[in-house]
Structure formats: structure tokens, C-alpha cells
Amino acid sequence: MPVSVVSRFTTQSPVYIFDLDGTILTANSFPLWVRYLLRGGPVRSPVVRARIAVVTAVALAKRKCGFSNHAMFKARLQSLWTNVGCDSEAADLVAQLENLVRPELRPLLERVADATLDAVLATAAADAYALPLGRKLGFRHIVASSIGRDNSGERKKEAVLDLLAGLGWRDRELVLFTDHRDDEPLMRICGTVEWFGTAERPVRI
Q1: What are phi and psi of 112, to 5 degrees?
Q2: Which terminus of the chain, N or C, has fewer Cβ atoms within 10 Å?
Q3: d(CA 114, CA 101)
């Protein structure tokens, strides 16, 4: 008699969707990434490190003076990261960010890492460091901002829906962990929202 193999995940089990900054992490990762680049990033060459620091400082000055917005500033840093060949996992930055993981979420993240629940890391953070950090935390499915595509608001919702559709998870219950009002489009499609924000949670319509 053939043995029937049944997945531990059923069509009724929820998919957990996690925001990063202010939710999994107790702080905003972006300023830490900027400081990391101001110190030269993950490369060893002193010449390249100096170039990274100078370009970052100029881009930061333009941002502070109002010549660029946050999305433009982030895209400039992502282009810099790619153009200088920063293909390192940036282990020192990842370790720094990992120390900021919210203690009350660690048991749930352990379940993500050992694959006893299905989860997605959905963040507006730059994929340059969000991808290695997400993998270090045990996420197998990650959507983050890439060059030219800021993964926030409606775009973040659509990216999550596209991923869920590709995985065959589109019809499952969704549980969202977030702290930010920008995730309101995601909130509207999630059955449960665990709110970590300091501001009052938006009302889902």
C-alpha cells in the first residue's frame, strides 16, 4: 500500500508577513547602512573604501540640503553599492542589525528559520543588506527595494501578492507584522495585523 505524504502546511495555515524596520528590528536600519557606507562599506581596498565614503557623503549632503528625496538617496546608495562591486554579504553590518531583533519575536523567527511556518520578509529596506539579513534570520522568501523600485505602499503589496501567487499561497490567510502606516495597502489584504507602531494603527477599509 503506498504511503501518502501530507505536508505540515495546509491550505488553512496562515502565511506570516513581516516588515523589517521597527517591527522585526527595534530601530531603523537605513541610517545604520548610511553610516556603514560612510566608513567605506564591506570592501577591503582603501582606495575603494575612500570612494564609497566620499560618494556617500556627497549624496547625504544633497539629501540634507533638499536636492534629493529619500527614494533618490536610497537609489543612489544602491547604485554605488553595485557599481563598486560590493558583492559581500556585509557580515559585520548584518551582525549589527541582527542584534537589534525584537526579543519577543525571536521565538517566531526561530520557527521561520526551521521552516515550521511559511513566512515572507517584506521590506522597503534596500536589498543590498535586506537580502543577506533576511537570509541570516531564516527567511526563504524576501521582497525588498531594488534599484529603481522602492518597495513600499502599493508596490510592496503588489510585490507580496506576486510572490504569494508564484508560491501557490495566494488563497491562504495572511498575518501581517508591521509598525508603519505605509503598509496600509498590505493591511487591507491581511486577515490579522499585529501592530508594533508608536502611532495609532490605521483603520483598514
Answers
A1: -60, -45
A2: N
A3: 17
Please report how the helices 91-98 and 127-137 are oriented relative to each other, as an axis angle in degrees rounded to 10. 60
Range of the domain at 122: 15-27+101-195
0.85 surpassed by pTM: yes
Q: Which residues pair with 65 in a beta bridge?
A: none
**pLDDT per position as a tens digit, 140-188:** 999 999 988 899 999 999 999 999 999 999 999 999 999 999 999 999 9
Give the CA distances from residue 24 to residues 29, 109, 135, 138, in Å, rounded to whole numbers and listed in that order: 11, 9, 14, 13
Please state, in angstroms and rounded to a whole number, the distance separating the CA atoms of residues 66 and 203: 32
* CATH number, residue 184: 3.40.50.1000
pLDDT greater than 70 at residue 65: yes
Last residue of a domain, one of 70, 92, 114: 92
